[in-house]
Automatic annotation (TrEMBL):
Keywords per UniProt: Carbohydrate metabolism, Galactose metabolism, Metal-binding, Nucleotidyltransferase, Transferase, Zinc
Database matches in PANTHER family: GALACTOSE-1-PHOSPHATE URIDYLYLTRANSFERASE
Protein name stated in the entry: Galactose-1-phosphate uridylyltransferase
GO molecular function: UDP-glucose:hexose-1-phosphate uridylyltransferase activity; zinc ion binding
Species for this entry: Leifsonia poae
UniProt domain Galactose-1-phosphate uridyl transferase C-terminal: residue ranges: 221-361
Pathway assigned to this chain's UniProt record: Carbohydrate metabolism; galactose metabolism
GO cellular component, one term: cytoplasm
Length: 392
């Protein structure tokens, strides 16, 4: 069987660049070198602690200079040409490289780096730490427009393989406490490049969202994820189910469009998923995203966030989970986070989750009918939209 191939390179300034070739790639194994003059990298940012919450804020001023919605001919993520000396020197299937202006890194240690989770948990006034870690860009395709949902099944499978490999590599770096792959899609979300891509953040701390999850595990018990999955799978909120994964609108959805995807067995992160699980995910994930886009006549903005267990923390309890959220509450309306949500973190949902799930099931069915047969993911017949069981 053809295999996805990993090819490691370096950019002119020393940043890591990794190509992942599709299993059915037509590309040559040769890759052009980066011929740009190396520019100095910005200094690693500094984190400041908010003593009201104990949370850490990275002040990364170099990000103010990043490219903003360039024309296609100057796309910095497209393969390089004489007129566009981009970040990726060669034609590629999937490419991953260190962000030029990262929020964390490139330093992995210095005299003011966090000395451990206990150090970060202390609360005081004027506390700072170096924003050690790593930020990477994941280019899903050499195309200048699109998103994960526009990929072929083979390319989607390559991206998933890249996520798993990068999770393993980044988790092994000194000072890294949690690895977070994600995709921002649409200008309404704040996207500054139309190129189909995502990012991976390797944080020097356990994120606030995961810290809140750990509090819930302490209050509920270690079977939280298994019990959530069992309850949701028997509910009317399931939108798509396979042998290894289930996609559903959560019982207490915050956003007008919100979909969670859980694996059926416990895996802490992508590194623990099997080939069969990755194969099915490539199919199921594409169908979920295409269904979301079929809700309206124009593409829907979203954040697709892969929540993974921290490095060495509660890995037998925290399960890999995808959470897709969108502020789109109608064809021409967005949900804005105003006083209650932004100031107090007290959410008010606009659409009942059961109603949202029903609309998404219909949208997935429409997207399946409208997709040419030659483009349908392998095994699609075994992944029918969920029927509507009795609510629980």
């Amino acid at each position: 069987m053809p295999q996805i191939t990993k090819r490691e390179h370096r950019l002119a300034d020393g940043r890591e660049l990794v190509y992942y070739d599709d299993a059915d790639t037509t590309l040559s194994p040769e890759r052009a070198p980066d011929l740009r003059e190396p520019a100095p990298r910005p200094a690693t940012a500094t984190m400041r602690q908010d003593p009201l919450t104990g949370e850490w804020i990275s002040i990364a001023a170099s990000r103010q200079n990043r490219v903003f919605l360039p024309p296609a001919e100057l796309d910095p993520l497209a393969p390089a040409t004489p007129g566009n000396p981009s970040e990726v020197p060669s034609l590629y299937d999937v490419a991953v490289f260190e962000n030029k202006s990262p929020s964390f890194g490139p330093l992995l240690d210095d005299e003011n780096a966090p000395s451990g989770l206990d150090d970060l948990a202390e609360v005081g006034l004027g506390r700072t730490r170096t924003s050690v870690g790593r930020c990477e860009v994941v280019c899903f395709s050499p195309a200048t427009t699109g998103s994960f949902g526009t990929l072929t099944p083979s390319r989607a499978r390559t991206v998933i393989e890249a996520w798993a490999d990068r999770t393993a590599v980044l988790s092994a770096l000194p000072g890294v406490r949690q690895v977070f792959p994600f995709e921002n899609r649409g200008e309404a979300i704040g996207v500054t490049l139309h190129h189909p891509h995502g990012q991976i953040y390797a944080y020097p701390y356990v994120t606030p969202r995961t810290t809140a999850l750990i509090r819930s595990l302490d209050a509920y018990g270690p079977t939280l994820f298994a019990d959530i999955l069992e309850r949701e799978r028997s509910s009317e909120r399931v939108i798509l189910a396979g042998e290894h994964w289930t996609a559903f609108v959560p019982f207490a959805a915050r956003w007008p469009i919100e979909v969670h995807v859980l694996p059926h067995r416990h895996v802490a992160d992508f590194t623990e998923t099997s080939s069969a699980e990755r194969d099915e995910l490539a199919t199921l994930y594409l169908r979920v995203l295409r269904g979301i886009d079929a809700l309206y006549d124009s593409p829907t903005p979203y954040i697709a966030a892969w929540h993974q267990a921290p490095v060495g923390v509660r890995r037998d309890e925290i399960r890999l989970m995808l959470q897709i959220t969108s502020p789109r509450r109608a064809a021409d309306k967005l949900k804005y986070l105003a006083g209650s949500e932004s100031a107090m973190g007290a959410w008010i949902g606009d659409i009942p989750p059961e109603q949202a799930a029903d609309r998404l099931r219909d949208a997935i069915a429409r997207a399946d009918r409208d997709t040419p047969v030659g483009e349908l993911p392998a095994g699609i017949a075994g992944l029918a939209p969920a029927s509507t069981p009795t609510a629980s």
